[in-house]
Structure formats: structure tokens, C-alpha cells
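Comment thread on ticket #2218

A.B. wrote:
> Attaching the input chain for the structure job we discussed in standup.
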Amino acid sequence: MEENRKGHGLAEGKILSIWMILFVALVLLPSMFRVSLGISHFYVKIVIKMLEWATLQIEEGVKKQKALALENLISTGIIQRDETPMEEQVAGRCRGCFSLADVMYFSKKGCEAVAEDEVTQRFSSEELLSWNLLSRTNANLHHTSWKLAAVWVTGILFRYCLLLPFRICLSVFSILLLVLATTVVGQFPNGRVKGWLSNQVQMVCATLGTRCLSGLVHFHNRENKPQKGGICVANHTSPLDVLVLASDGCYSLVGQVHGGLMGLIQKSCMQTSQHVLFERSEMKDRHLVRKRIREHIADKAKLPILIFPEGTCINNTSVMMFKKGSFEVGGTIHPVAIKYDPRFGDAFWNSTKHSIMTYAFNVLTSWAIVCNVWYLPPMVKEEEEDAVHFADRVKAVIAARAGMSVLPWDGGLKRKKIKESFKEEQQKKYCQIVIENGSVGNGNVC
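C.D. wrote:
> Ran it. Output below, let me know if you need it in another format.
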């Protein structure tokens, strides 16, 4: 019995040693030197082939009429909108007088907004044209054929029984490494050595974090990477945005104070580098933040500041209004466009619906996180250009590069009601049309 126990213990020790050697050789060392072994590329190619095969199986099993109807529903939405501006529809209907038919225009727009407005749908997960074998987009398509059902079940077992435990272990290791390393480096006196060590720790931990998700990030135009003393602005989809960008460079972060797991990571990072954090509800802090940003970018030796001007997470299909505060402080703006591939998993975090732990579980059980990052040429505010127009110009550049739509709406509508100023703006626009048509003062009604 003792010999059997010793033999069993030796076997377990050998297996553990092999796992440790593989972990160090395939994960830890490549992350430390930021070298890719091509494993993620190979894995993503396999997933792409599998999804393409699944799409063919679905197309063969579902009638063309139903598939076409489903595709049109997803691609165009519930309703088809008339994008003709108000000026053309209202002003062209009746010249020189007020028309009661104008009421129908506003009634139509109101019904369209009730049925499907273009704002709230940006705060929910993006719909896919084809099933990616994940339960979130499952419309009972696994019943199409037994082959597809077998692949779907195999994928569930692979993701939950193999990928999930490995990713959880690697995530815990990465967080512990970040906490311990930043605690040690934080004890060093301020200087070049501490700064270099801090940068290395953050980039290694961020690289490990992307490996936790089988992440594959394509960086483009690295010659435009944000420089010290500058401000980096990017569209915002999830907390993964910080992880993705930090794996290729170091930044000082500007953002909201979080609690729980996010708070632990924030406190750890604060020990080794300077970040600007604030409470969303405290407006006084925002003036202080603006002042601290000016002081930060005035020192050209400090890391570039990373800001998400939208102020909330959007589902990566559009770019919403950029808050002007980031563009009032001056300095050089370095735009960055981030676009995730939704076929492999949903990177969007709906913070009003899911907690950070629920979101983390959904991401850890996805196929992978694949995204493209474009570093765009630096931009500066032109003479006589105010902060609002400068912010819109930067937003348009980011949206165009990532292939996303531009929306003028405030991302704060996720949690707040629409401002009265937006309603008044539409009323003023209509009044201006009526005045230009000459109907005011002559009592004409059509």
C-alpha cells in the first residue's frame, strides 16, 4: 500500500511539474518578453473554420425565405427609417403657411422611437448575422442538424470544462502577480528605476490578462502610438479596452472609482503610477480632474493619459457623444480606434444589467477576444475651434477608422432621462423652418 501511495504521489508530482514547465514556457515567458508563439492565431483560425462550417449547416437546414427574412430583420432592424432631414420633409410639404400635416411627421418619428430608437439599442449586445455557437445568439439553431448539435455540445464541454478552469487559474495568477508586484515596486523611491519597473509590471500583467481570454489583438500604425505628455482618447466598449491598450504601452488612467475586483486592481495600480480617478456623481471632482490633467500633460516626462470621453460602455457598433472636458485642457490628442470581432465573443459590458463578475464569467466562457486597434495621427485644436467641435472631429475620425456609426447622443442616457435642451433644440429647428416659410404673422394655415 505504501509503495502504491508513493508511486501515485510521484506520478502526481510529475504531472504537476509538466504543467508548471508548460505554463512557464508557453505563457509566462512569452508574456514577459511580449512574444507571440502563434498559438492564439492557430486557435482563432480553427474557430473561424468551425463557424464557417456551422453557417453552411444552418443555411442548408433553414429555408432560404426564413434565412433571408432573419437576415433582413437583423440587418435593418424592426423598422426602416426615412433619413430625410426635417427641413426637407416639413419645408417641402407646404410653402408659405403652417401645415397641420406637420403633426403627422412628428407622430411618425415618435412611433419610430417607441418601436426602436437608435440610442437604447446601443446599450445592448450587438446582434449577429450568423450563429457563433454561443448560447447568447442561440435561436434554437442547434436543432437544425445532428452534426451541428454535436459540435455545439462539444464546444460547450471544451469551453466550460477545459478553457474556463485554465482561464480562471491564469486570471487569479495575473491579479495576484499585479497586487504583489505593485506592492513591492511601490516601496522603491521615486525615480527612473521605479518608473521602469512599474511599466514592466503593468505591461506583463496586461499581456497575461489578454492570454487569459485567448486574446488576439492586431495593432496597426504603431508609429502613431501616444507619446508622453499627451492625451490618448478611445471609444469605450468594456474594461477590456484598458487591458488591450496596456498590453502594448503604459498609460495613466482617468476614470471612475470602482469597488470590488475593479477597485482592487485600481488600488494596486495607484501604488506605482499616477492615475486620476473620480466619483461620477461628484461634479466638483471633475473640475479638480481637469486641473490635474492640465498639470499632468504639462510634464512631458509623464505617461500619456488614457481617457474614454463617451463616459460609458457602448456596444461597439457606434461612437456616441464625446464629453468636451477632455478637449478643453489643451495639449495633443492621440485618437485610438478599438473594434472587437463579435463572432468570437461579446466584449460589451452592459453595466446596468450585469455585474463585473457576471461579465467576467461571460467573457471567460467565450471562444476568444479578437480585436483591432488603430493608432491614428495626433490631432490638435485649431484656432477659433471650441472644445465641442474639436471633440466631434476626433469622434468622427475614430468612428470612420473603426467602421462604426456616429451618434450625437450622450451616453449618459443609459442611466438618465433626455435633457430638456435636446427637446428645445428640435422645437427651435421647427420654428425656424416655419418662420423661413413666412407663415408667422400672416395667419396662414394649410
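A.B. wrote:
> Thanks. Noting for the ticket: The chain is about 50% helix and 10% strand.
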